[in-house]
Every structure is written in structure tokens, then in C-alpha cells.
Amino acid sequence: MTNGRLPVVLPIQKSCSDPAIAKMKPRIGVLTSGGDCPGLNAVLRGVVLAAEKLGWEVIGFRDGFEGLLPPGDHVVLDRKSIDGIMALGGTIIGTTNRGHFVAKTGAGDRTVVPAQVIADARKILGELQVKALIIVGGDGSMVTAQQLQEAGINCIGVPKTIDNDLEATAATFGFDSAVDVVVDGLDRLHTTATSHRRVMVVEVMGRHAGWIALHGGIAGGADIILIPEIPFDYDRIAGVIKARETAGCLGTVVVVSEGARPKHGEQVKRDVEAGEFRLGGIGEIVAREIAKRTSKETRCCVLGHLQRGGAPTTLDRILATRFGVKAVQLANEGHFGSMVSYQNYQVRHVPIAEAVNRLKLVPPNGELVQTARDVDISFGD
Ligand code: F6P
Questions:
Q1: Which helix (H) or strand (E) holds 119?
Q2: Percentage above 70 pLDDT, the chain
Q3: What is the b/e burial string over 309-344, where b = at least 16 CB atoms within 10 angstroms of the residue's CB?
Q4: Domain range list for the chain
Q5: C-alpha span between 336 and 6 (Å, rounded)
Q6: Which CATH superfamily is domain 176-308 in?
Q7: How much distance in Å is there from the Cα of 296 to the middle of ligand 1?
Q8: How far does residue 197's CA lie from ligand 1's centre (Å)?
């Protein structure tokens, strides 16, 4: 293994008429799609080990759905290839959130994957005798999975997102690991805030939903949390900081989701092209506006992709393993078109069709926001 990814050595491809193929074990395909996330490798490990027990062979497609394109960029995943990958961040078979299969450009949008691209993928899966395809990805990848399923490819979805913003599952692996990074970052930034009597603004991920900021902010002792679901007001934020100073507090720590926006303002988008964009930059703007209004030294720290890397937490390793095992069971039982889902402490399944395009947002009047307010955290509203 090199750089945490399997070396690019493809097995020799055989034709379907080859007697060796006729004797082959039934095959499950698996791919990881969308942004990387701690726990992807733990899912792959769970898939391979559970599949082996049930007599399936596992084929991993490289770089997300792109691996399904002719000639079919794949590798056999066996015990040896998944040995020791539980704690490894990223994905040993690669991923992408770009390419030929992108079926979504933003919340609620659905674009159609070209029929020829789907036909090519179906042909490759047929040639490789793959009976079921496990797709580990976020909302956009599930939209693609649904389209493959509609085109007659047997798909099983495994939800993945550090943002934890899928309505159809109470939890996704990667979220806990991302929150841990935020908490560690806040623990460190508090010291600069108090030592220098500064305001430290920390920008975290969270495209549509503020779960990472909310959980990370509460656990990391933030003073102000700004999330997409609660538009904020710069004067209010400045008021909170001044009141803290009057009360003798030395520094202030502000956590801001990349998707947060001021009342009557817009999200900060970058690299906008053909309806696609990246978020990011709101932290710097918040810091500038705070400095202007309070005259306090203010700094911004963007945690960015640090939140998506590194070893998964214990909780994420267990959830990812359970998801991988469940996906194989669903394939084995023929529950095609379904997505693994975590509900009431149980791993269950829901139809992919019902799971897509339904975001789980932070309820602004919910218990968690209220708890934060009760420990004197302001949402700048
Ligand atoms: O959806 C997960 C996520 O981490 C978002 O929070 C973030 O906006 C996006 O992915 C970043 O994607 P990229 O790696 O393409 O910049």
C-alpha cells in the first residue's frame, strides 16, 4: 500500500466465457464517492469481511463512480488489502466529487447522469459479473445511486458525510471525528484568545447544516456559534463581545459554519462556475466586522480539510463497521435500492428514493440550540 491507497495494479481482466469466471464466487462491487471522510476504510473493511463470510468476492472500483467507466478501473479487495486499514483516514480505493456521474450540484437540484454513461457502467458491471454495487457516499452520490438503480443496476447505499445532514439517518460516520478536530482546535485557540485578550474566529465545515459548529462549539466551550439555520447580526455579535469584556472575560471564541450568513446577507461562495461553487471565507469577514465594531484584535482560523482527515474516532469506527456489514447483508438478501440508515440505536435500511434530497437541518428552536443558549452561548441573532 502506498500513500494510504492501493497501488494501481489491476487484475488481469477475463472475458465472461472464460471458464475461470464461470467458477468465480458471486461478486459485490463497492465504491466510495464524494468528499473523503474518516471511517470510509472501516466501511470497506466491514464490507470485505462480512462478504467473505457469506461467500461473496468484493471488487473495489477506484475514484468513485469513475471506476465504472470502460475499461473498469477496479481491484479485488480481500483480507490482505483491508488489513490494518481501520484507523486509516481517506479511502484506499480513492474518491471524487467531480466527474461523469455527478447528479447533483446543490441542495434540491437533480441533474440526470447521461444514459450512455450509465449504459457503459452497466456493461462493465456485467462483464465483471458484479451482482450488486455498494455505494458509499453523501446525498449527491445517493442521487446517482438512485439513477443507476432505476436503470437496472442493483445498488445499496451507505450514507457518508461529516456534515451529518441527511434526514434519512440519525447519524453518519465521520461526523464525530470532524467534531473532535473542532474541539481540539478550540481547546488550543482558547489559550491565544485569553493570553492576548483577542477574539478568535474559527471557520468550520457545514455546507447547509450547522451540526459540526453546534456540537464542536458546545463541546469546545465557544462563546458564539454562527450556523446556516440562524442568520446572524454583526452588531449583536459585537454587543456580546463587549458585554463579555465588561464582565471581565479575557477572550472570546467564535465558531462559524462555512455556510452561515448574516441576516439580509448571502452565503460566501467561491469558484462559482456553472451553478457549482465552494463555500468558505465567511470566517475572515466575520473577523473583520468584529474588529471594526469592537476595536479588538481579532484573528480567523479556518480548520478546512483538517476536519475530514486522520483516524476515525472509536464511535465512527463502530458505526462505519456496522454500516459496511449491513450493506453486505442487504445485498445478500436482495434489498436493492435501499440505503443503510441509523435509527433508534439500530442499523436499518430505507429506500434510497426516500432518502435523497432530504436535508437534516439544525432546528433553531430545538433542545440543542436551547441548551447552548442556557450555557450563555450566543447565536448572534
Ligand atoms: O459535504 C462535505 C464537505 O466537507 C462540506 O462541508 C464542504 O463544503 C465540502 O465537503 C468541501 O468539498 P471539497 O473537498 O470539494 O472542497
A1: helix 115-127
A2: 92
A3: ebbbbebbbbbbbbbbbbbbbbbbeebbbbbbbbee
A4: 19-173+312-355, 176-308
A5: 28
A6: Phosphofructokinase domain (3.40.50.460)
A7: 31
A8: 32
Which atom number of ligand 1 is nearest to the Cα of residue 205? Answer: 6
Residue 247, burial from CB neighbour count under 10 angstroms (0-12, 13-18, 19+): exposed
Q: How far is the CA of 361 from the centre of ligand 1 (A)?
A: 16
Establish whether residue 105 lines the binding site of ligand 1, counting it when its CB lies within 6 angstroms of any ligand atom. no
- Over residues 134-176, the pLDDT tens digits come to 999 999 999 999 999 999 999 999 999 999 999 999 999 999 9
| Whether the CB of 104 sits within 6 Å of ligand 1 | no
The greatest distance separating any two alpha carbons of the chain, rounded to the nearest whole angstrom, comes to 81
Q: How far is the CA of 333 from the centre of ligand 1 (A)?
A: 34
> 239: exposed, middle or buried (C-beta count within 10 Å: 0-12, 13-18, 19+)?
middle
Q: If the chain, 381 residues long, is cut into consecutive pieces of 10 residues, what is the mean pLDDT of each piece? A: 56 49 82 97 98 97 97 96 97 95 68 93 97 96 96 97 96 98 98 97 96 98 98 98 97 98 93 81 98 98 97 98 98 98 97 92 98 98 97
The answer to whether 326 and 49 have CB atoms below 8 angstroms apart is: no
Q: What is the pTM of this model?
A: 0.93
Whether residue 308 has its Cβ less than 6 Å from ligand 1: yes
Q: Which of 163, 176, 180, 223 is catalytic?
A: 163
Dihedral of CA atoms 321, 326, 331, 333 in degrees, nearest 10, equals: 150
For 306, other C-beta atoms within 10 Å of its C-beta total 15
Active site residue 163: yes
84/68 Cα distance (integer angstroms): 26
User: CB–CB of 30/47 below 8 Å?
Assistant: yes
Q: Which ligand 1 atom is nearest residue 212's CA?
A: 6
Three cell numbers, residue 94: 480513492
> Which CATH class for the 19-173+312-355 domain?
alpha beta
Decide if 323 contacts 158 (C-beta within 8 A). yes
Helix/strand/coil for 303: coil
The reply to whether 176-308 shares the fold of 19-173+312-355 is yes
